[in-house]
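User: For this week's homework, look closely at the record that follows, marking any run of repeated tokens, and judge whether sequence predicts the tokens.
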Amino acid sequence: MSNILETLNNLVHQTAFFNLTVGNYIMILVACIFLYLAIKKEYEPLLLVPIAFGMLLVNIYPDIMLRIEDSSNGVGGLLHYFYLMDEWSILPSLIFLGVGAMTDFGPLIANPISFVMGAAAQLGIYVAYFLAIILGFSDKSAAAISIIGGADGPTSIFLAGKLGQTAIMGPIAVAAYSYMSLVPIIQPPIMKLLTTDKEKKIHMGQLRPVSKLEKILFPIIVTIVVCVLLPTTAPLVGMLMLGNLFKECGVVRQLTETASNALMYIVVIMLGTSVGATTSAEAFLNWSTIKIVILGLFAFAFGTAGGVLLGKLLCKVTHGKINPLIGSAGVSAVPMAARVSQKVGAEYDPSNFLLMHAMGPNVAGVIGTAVAAGTFMAIFGI
């Protein structure tokens, strides 16, 4: 009888209830809120569902992120192996390959001024960099945190790994992906505040047709120019342009389908769950993380404002030919930010179609954020 009771006692104490802290319960609640937003509200569910579930798992069973060197049998936790591929910059680069294979660069080629709006939306990165230094972060930590302003999760993870900031990679990645998912909530108030009703109703002329030759040459030229000037951007910009070349050249359909479908979704699962699994209560519930999350919000807000304000300037310069709302799409959240530009414009004039115009700054933002990351790496000699 005593053996039975001892066995039952051991089983009971092996349950998570005896090991969970108040912090774990808080993070489990946060994970459930994220799952609600992803499933019920459909806020970037492809990102938020795996991130939230990784958050849920690690706060119930921390050993799912157990490091190999901390293991008694030399075998690490499942999600630790996924996370290593984040640290090694493998998964972020593969994400860029998939994004390139899924994205039409035609609107950017047809309207090159979109590059300027994409660049203006990087304002948040540099504002966040100086704010982070003021708040006591080191130069490299500040640079890694600031990339959240580009609303680009893969680039945030890539730069944090390259700068050796793995200790804060989890909060940075979660903040970046969370703000990417919350674009429909964060951006519209800023866009509405900074533009007049007249500006919101501006109709833009139809984009010119872009030839197949232009679409093929574009990724090749961008790769040569950007990677010669900033070789450190090659893993991101190179993979982005390679994926797009797969799409546009028309002779490697199997590679295009693999990069934009099967491979892309496999990588999203691995990256999302491993990012979510970095949010254990011990690692996440501290002042440093709170400051990172707040800095990320400021960065994203300033990035959105920078794109809209430059859009207003271009609107005046072109005598009302550019709707400033498309400037907000200069952040790197493709294609969600462009959809938000369309949605806000349609609220004031249902016949206004801004989506394709907004895709130009949106794609430019992806390139701009990668260039900003490469600039920081060059500054620090990485």
